[in-house]
Amino acid sequence: MTGEVGLAERFARLARALRTAPTPEDAQERVTLYAVATVPGCDHAGISLVDRHGGVVSVASTGAAASRVDEIQHEVGEGPCLGVIHDRFVCAVADLAADARWPAFGRRAVAETGVRGLLCFRLFVEDDVLGALTLSSTRPGAFDHHAVAVGTVLAAHAALAMTDARNRRRCAELDEALRSNRDIGTAMGILMARRLVTRDQAFDLLRTASRRLHRKLRDVALDVVETGTLPVDATVAAER
């Protein structure tokens, strides 16, 4: 019972740590660290995600061995990580040196990293497949049924946290875009009123000033909103 309570407390701490992760990258890093600390037999952990083009890229790991395990799978186009992304939810490998399912990957992974046991989980939320969490060990047979159960819970926490962090980033980016558009629109209105120009002409004035000053369009617009004039006008006046 003590062990179960301790495990529950670990996952409670994990849930809080992941919920407060400021970015998806921080959430991914925390998952890999918790994997090594929590899943029995785990020496290394890595996360691979499906990119917008359908490819798979490594995004987080606890070290060189975990990164290389993922990289080799991507290079040869086979392995348990790719398997859980496309075909199954969990894949356990007792001894990679003796497993014939992925010969090209297995030979290189053992030779280049010393990894023997692997445990891979699909990271998903409903129908949205994010990628895979790959746990590895230098010992054959390191992952038992208990490790699979703990890893399954960890993968579920990870997928939810990463999705939440990704959604928060998207909301922040959308909010920033809306603020930027509002500032640009306000600046255009000021220029239209003061210079008696059209909407398109006002936008061209902002864009020209942005290029000339090597500043972002929104920053130039903010100057117009705050001062009522284009910053390039002040520059030209100072040069005269």
From TrEMBL:
It comes from the Bacteria. Keywords: Kinase, Transcription, Transcription regulation, Transferase. Signal peptide: none annotated. Residues 164-225 form the ANTAR domain. InterPro entries: ANTAR, CheY-like_superfamily, GAF, GAF-like_dom_sf, GAF_ANTAR, WH-like_DNA-bd_sf. PROSITE patterns: ANTAR. The keyword Transcription applies. SMART domains: ANTAR (SM01012), GAF (SM00065). This is GAF and ANTAR domain-containing protein. It comes from Pseudonocardia lutea.
